Amino acid sequence: MSNSNDPMVFGKDEIVKSILGKLERHFGCEISEATNNQIYQAIASTVRDEMMNRRAASRGIRKKSGSKKLYYLSAEFLVGRALHNNIVTLVNEDNYIAAFDELKIDKSLIYEQEPEPGLGNGGLGRLAACFLDSLSALKLPAMGCTIRYEYGLFRQKIVDGYQVELPDNWLDNGNLWEICRADQTREVHFFGHVERYEENGRERFRTVGYQTVLAVPYEMPVLGYDSTMVNMLRMWSARSPKQMDMTKFNRGEYAQAMEEKALAEVISKVLYPEDNHEEGKELRLKQQYFFSSATVQYAVWDFLKVHGPNWAIFPDKVALHINDTHPGMAIPELMRVLIDDYGLSWDDAEDITIRSFAYTNHTVMQEAMERWPVHLVKNLLPRIYMILEEINRRVCDRLWKVYTGQWERIGRMAVIGYDCVNMANLCVSMTHSVNGVSQIHADILKRITFRDFYLVEPGKFVGITNGITHRRWLMQANPGLTRLMDDAIGDQWKKDPERMIDLLPYADDRSFRERFYQVKRENKLRLADFVKRTRGITIDPDSIFDAQAKRLHEYKRQLMNALHIMMLCNRILDDNNFEMPPRTYLFGAKAAPGFWRAKLIIHLINTIARYVDNNPRLSKMIKVVFLENYCASVAEALMPATEISEQLSTAGKEASGTGNMKFMMNGAVTIGTMDGANVEIFDAVGNDNIYIFGLSATEVEAGYATYRAHSVYETNAQIRRVMEQLIDGTLDSGNPHQFQELYHSLLFGDNGNMADPYFVLKDLPDYMMTQSRISQDYLKRDEWLKKAVTNTACSGVFSSDRTITEYNERIWHLTPLKL
User: Fold this and answer.
1) Which of 524, 550, 590, 603 is catalytic?
2) Backbone torsions φ then ψ of 730, nearest 5 degrees
3) Could you tell me which residues come within 8 angstroms of residue 241 by beta carbon, excluding any fewer than 6 positions away?
4) R_g of the chain computed on alpha carbons
């Protein structure tokens, strides 16, 4: 609904005039001659004008009021396409759609012209984007801070069933939404050596002989829903201060003349460069320090501009939040700036730093706990390493007073130990708050991961369950369900998403359930059309849509899903009388380029898809589809159409998950383990409206000492058969041993480690029985629709508005701006 009385809201005629005018001025053409991309740019710049009008109305209020500001540092912000989202956030969709109708513009085609920003990969980045959306909606002053990756992670192409990585050239035609703030460029220094000197009787330090990289900021506006509040996502781009060495160029050394520029600017080329070699490790560390340093420098500069050098109030005016350990180098960087640049004592700088920083942990997986080799940090960041050494000395000294004589324990907790800089220990030691992202995750942090720290400072640790922005994942992605909810319970839920619970009585309303079904079917038809256009694959909208869409990792257990499909195929082929509701299995996932096993699982899924398609009996009941290059815009088509949400992580391994919340909000029913936020979904919807299977987290912990995968193989004929089919040519007679590595890892393990460390075979029988129950329950249409409506009605508690409110009350203590 549009607010036609608001002078800042563009009316239909104003929008039409703007689009036509921009086509004439920018491209010299009329709308009848314009390409879809030119029309997109004209519409997007019109929307941007309306957003900037609102920003102008509230600009400077935070500085005038002296309010506290949050800097949210994250290596990823998976923001998704902006055009449609911004139109929804402006609460002006009616006028824009009316303008599109008058100009005969197909909005779906135009929305697809926008490139997907390559600023993120998975849940970490999507969460950060949802947080910025909610911060703006709640009028809390904040800035998101990251790197302006030129090529993103990668564009995934499936070739002969395998993942192939291609550059994601999302910036080829520029980014219409960003604003370059070159006047706020910062210098970031690498290498060199540290000199000691004395000044006014104090020992001081300076780095000399360093290499300089310029951090050039670009900003994308994030508008608050139905508001003039605009926060910024700041993206730092790496530039060399020296464009070209003319002396070398004039000697004919053309490549060498550009070498310094290329080495500097590679920092902001790619998200998560492969780090299984020394050069990759160095580049990743450069990236992390680069955007952390630039952000800290800017935050200090902004503080001084508003408050002057009143350092005592810095933590009351500046909150710095580290989203996982990637920005952890911001901690010693703030220490460096305060001590070296502004002359504060160590004790004052440390107090300010600890009171200013908070840390969110996102994983209990040891492989993801970043550790940097000492020689790498010492060489690349010599002054930072000196500061880390002193932090480590003081941390260990404090720990010695608690754990006297327990050297091994203190060594595990040290910031520098075993020839590595332990970033998680740094973040826990030097922040005032550490939070997990679900209640079970926070409990594991306290009991296991950071137990020794928790015993020293129990008040520092909190659990705040993740959330998603309902504005993108329901209002934008599922307009049919949005209209249905408005008709039933009014539109108050849009600003107060926990009012979605008002929908719960409608689960018992037969007429409402029928309309809910029609919305779901329309979304299934829309997804079927998308899959046909993008993959050339036909899927049956009358089949059950069952989706597992998330980053490919062993603990997320896409392999379990694939093995179950193979077991189902065996049952269908063995029993001519067996029938089941036709089901379409939809997978969306990217595997890290160097993670061979994850890529092999993708190949297995695609091989199963081909095997099913080539068998007439199987293809009547099963369809397997791998959605290429899974990203936010693909998710926006997938989530509203899905009926079964696969959340299969090994219990205790998934910190929270947010895909589970998006599927739930759109009326999908979850099948999952009691892991991450699944536990709280279970609490919200009740046992009758979710399908739980598998070991609990405590059973998994105990299982590391007792579980033997081979015993499952030997005692379960169905599992034994499907395991043999991985290597006997059933799936591909031309290459029968291509999945030998998966077979070996499940039954024998790697390099002396336990077999099946994620308990795939152990949980598989229970998973199969639960899936069979789902197939039976789905046939009871009324009962199934009750489950679906209940899931939507109970999903408001998983809005990121609730999450951000909780962060603010417990950690940040920001004051909403009065606009």
Assistant:
1) 550
2) -55, -45
3) 187, 212, 213, 214
4) 27
* pLDDT tens digits, 356-373: 999 999 998 887 789 999
Q: Which residues of 42-57 are buried (b: 16+ CB within 10 A; e: fewer)?
A: bbbebbbebbeebeee
Q: Of the listed 551, 583, 623, 786, which one is catalytic?
A: 551
In this predicted structure, what is the pLDDT of residue 819?
87
**Tokens linked to 732:** 């591909």
Q: Which residue in 148, 362, 603, 762 is the catalytic one?
A: 362
From the candidates 84, 126, 284, 556, give the one annotated as an active-site residue: 556
The conformation of residue 160, written as its DSSP 8-state character, comes to: T
Q: Is 550 a catalytic residue?
A: yes
> Residue 577 burial (CB < 10 Å; 0-12/13-18/19+)?
exposed
Amino acid, res. 509: D
Which residues, at least 6 apart from 564, have a Cβ–Cβ distance to it below 8 Å? 764, 767, 768, 771
Catalytic residue, from 146, 207, 363, 658: name it. 658
Catalytic, 590? Answer no
3-state SS assignment for residue 162: strand
Look up 658 and say whether it is catalytic: yes
Q: How far is CA 637 from the centre of its chain?
A: 18
Instruction: Give tens-digit pLDDT for 176-227.
Output: 999 999 999 999 999 999 999 999 889 999 999 999 999 999 999 999 999 9
Q: Give the distance between the most distant pair of CA atoms in the chain.
A: 91
Tokens of 553: 């990792």
Instruction: Count how many Cα atoms sit within 13 Å of the Cα of residue 188 in the half-sphere of its side chain.
Output: 34
Please give the Cα distance from 719 to 706 (Å, whole number): 20
Q: How many residues does the chain have?
A: 819
- Distance in angstroms (rounded) separating the CA atoms of residues 140 and 137: 8
In the residue annotation, 551 being an active-site residue is answered as yes
